[in-house]
Amino acid sequence: MRQLIAGNWKMNCLGADAVALARAVAAGAAGIQADLLVCPTALHVAAVVQALKGSAVAVGGQDCHMAPKGAHTGDIAAPMLADLGAGWVILGHSERRQNHGETDEMVREKVLAAVAAGLTPIVCVGETEEQRVGGQETEVVGWQISGSLPKPFSGVIAYEPLWAIGTGRTATEQDVAAMHGFIREELVRQFGEEGRGIRILYGGSVRPANAPGLLAVPEVAGALVGGASLDAADFLAIARAARSV
Ligand code: PGA
After folding, report:
1. pLDDT at residue number 24
2. pLDDT of residue 1
3. Is 100 marked active-site?
4. CA of 234 to the centre of ligand 1 (A)
5. Less Cβ crowding at N or C end of the chain, within 10 Å?
6. Whether residue 173 lies in the annotated active site
């Protein structure tokens, strides 16, 4: 299986910047031994899909509602993302869990909505600094997995320790190895054999300099990249560090 390098553009780029960034990623994608994905704001999905036509770079959303349609002012339904040509959606990112009060139960409902619309969900889990200092990181992540993933689950998990997101601080390779090993055990315990095939990405201050080390850690099947994905050269440098797993 190839590693997946996913860019989470968050609430960045005006339209022309998003198209330029997408084009720059596509222009450098040839020969890269990883699956590539970019997730612009939903407003730019259509333009980015258009800019990436004919390239190997896939497009995803950053969130979706749990209902396929209805009276939900300001929300975006999974079928709408699929309709624009997105194939993926990030769900349960810590910025949504923290800033929008998303619970595991809500994330689980969103995963079901995404899959029903034909999207592949990337479900984010991860502990706060306080929880890690308190030695609760595996307990927290174990609960997030059992609460956020429906059974069966066809998607990807991203382990993103909150204290590493946007901070320039990365988890050590040992910490990542320990947590990814734990997540794999949990997936197998909760999902049986199916749990062995679920890709587990690492996210949190992934940069070209630390990517080779992080992407070489056992059970790391790729990266979810925030800040560094806004620079095509950095994103592509990270992707060049990917390997087959
Ligand atoms: P970062 O963000 O790479 O800027 O730390 C990662 C993420 O939030 O997905």
Report:
1. 98
2. 84
3. no
4. 13
5. N
6. no
Task: Tell me if 138 sits within 8 A of 183, measured CB to CB.
Answer: no
Residue 205 amino acid letter: S
Short-list 179, 135, 145, CA closest to 161: 179
**Tens-digit pLDDT profile for residues 155-210:** 999 999 999 998 888 889 999 999 999 999 999 999 999 999 999 999 999 999 99
Report residue 2: phi and psi, to 5°.
-80, 155
Measured in Å, residue 101 CA sits from the centre of ligand 1 at: 19
* Contact criterion met (CB below 8 Å) for 30 and 1: no
- Enumerate residue ranges in the chain where pLDDT < 50: none
What pLDDT was estimated at residue 6? 98
Atom of ligand 1 nearest to the CA of 224: 9
What is the model's pLDDT at position 244? 75
| Burial category of 27 from C-beta neighbours within 10 Å (exposed 0-12, middle 13-18, buried 19 and up) | exposed
CA of 168 to the centre of ligand 1 (A): 9
Residues with CB under 6 A from ligand 1: 8, 160, 165-166, 203-206, 224-228
Write the DSSP string, the chain.
Answer: -BEEEEEE--S---HHHHHHHHHHHHHT-TT-SEEEEEE--GGGHHHHHHHTTTSSEEEEES--BSSSSSS-TT--BHHHHHHTT--EEEES-HHHHHHS---HHHHHHHHHHHHHTTPEEEEEE---HHHHHTT-HHHHHHHHHHHH--SS--SEEEE--GGGTTTS----HHHHHHHHHHHHHHHHHHHGGGGGS-EEEEESS--TTTHHHHHTSTT--EEEESGGGGSHHHHHHHHHT--B-
